[in-house]
Amino acid sequence: MVYMISHALVPIFAIMLLGFFAGKSKMVNNQDVSMINTFVMDFALPAALFIATIQTPWEGIVAQSTLILILMLVMWITFAAIYFLATKVFNKSPQDAAVLTLTAAMPNYAALGLPILSNVLGESPSTTLSVAVSIASGSVLLTPLCLLILEREKACEEGKSGSNLLILMWRSIKKPIVMGPVLGIALSAIGIKMPELILVAIKPLGLSATATALFLTGVILSARKLQINRMVSVGVMTKLLLQPMIAWGFVLVFGLHGSVAITIILMVALSAGFFGVVFGNTFGVHSPDAEAVLLLSSVLCILSLPLFIFLTSGI
Fold first, then answer.
1. Which of 43, 83, 99, 259 has the most CB atoms at less than 10 Å from its CB?
2. In this predicted model, what pLDDT tens digit does every residue of 199-252 receive, in sequence order?
3. C-alpha–C-alpha distance, residues 240 and 307, integer Å
């Protein structure tokens, strides 16, 4: 079991280490990664999410409605709790707190979801669909909350009105990282299929998304020093232990069992995702706490994931 999880994590650390080495050795300018960041956030990841959602039949998305609902509730609860602690207890700035919160609240569906779920439940179209729906759920239902806060603070710093909620929401939603999956879901819902030639044309972008994002994360981390403090400890514990237990609570409330219950709990039990760190870099926000949570949760999930795989084996 540990071997299986390690096997899934090795590519992640390998690519991040390559990025870290490239930044440290100055092969890549780790002080200015705006070009790579733009490629990842405005092209590669939106393309990957668009392809995943538009190729998912609407009936399949509807069939995953319980998964979507519980993932949404778990991520929103975690987001609210971590953001409150970061701003009210640990006195973090709203921007820093938003980046940290997205990192802790959104699991690494993109890189770990399919390897872990396939090894536990077996490779099947339903497993792939569950992972695609999980990625889309995080991108559409959670990332706009982080973007909303970042856009608000950016507007305030520029002396613009930061109180017009509709304008801020539009600025957040129109980001390609949100519009990609939203457009894919909308087209799937109304039964429109993209021409095969268009999908083939943008597929290479999607295939490069996760690897480039992990490489970028490594480059960003190469310019920082790992700092462990109480906020980081709370974030890691929440991500690896508390968040999966919240998901388990909803599984019990909804009376779920079998593969559906296992999918929900294991998707939430994954390590922290890289979206928060990459989003922060887009807005010029560097959160050492978010970076530490990302790294530590990725390492420690080697211990926590086997625990939840074992505990869910009988449900």
1. 99
2. 999 999 888 888 898 898 889 888 888 889 999 999 999 999 999 999 999 999
3. 10
Query: Hey, which residues does 248 pair with through a beta bridge?
Result: none
How far apart CA 219 and CA 26 sit, in angstroms, is: 10
Rounded to 5 degrees, φ, ψ at 253 are: -60, -40
pTM of the model: 0.85
Distance of CA 26 to the CA centre of its chain: 28
What digits encode the pLDDT tens for the residues 237-290?
A: 999 999 999 999 999 999 999 999 999 999 999 999 888 988 888 888 989 999
Cα–Cα distances in angstroms (integers) from residue 299 to residues 13, 290, 310, in the given order: 9, 14, 19
Which pLDDT value is given to residue 97?
96
Could you give the C-alpha distances from 283 to 2, 152, 169, 213, 279, in angstroms and in order?
A: 37, 11, 16, 16, 7
Number of CB atoms found within 10 A of residue 33's CB: 24
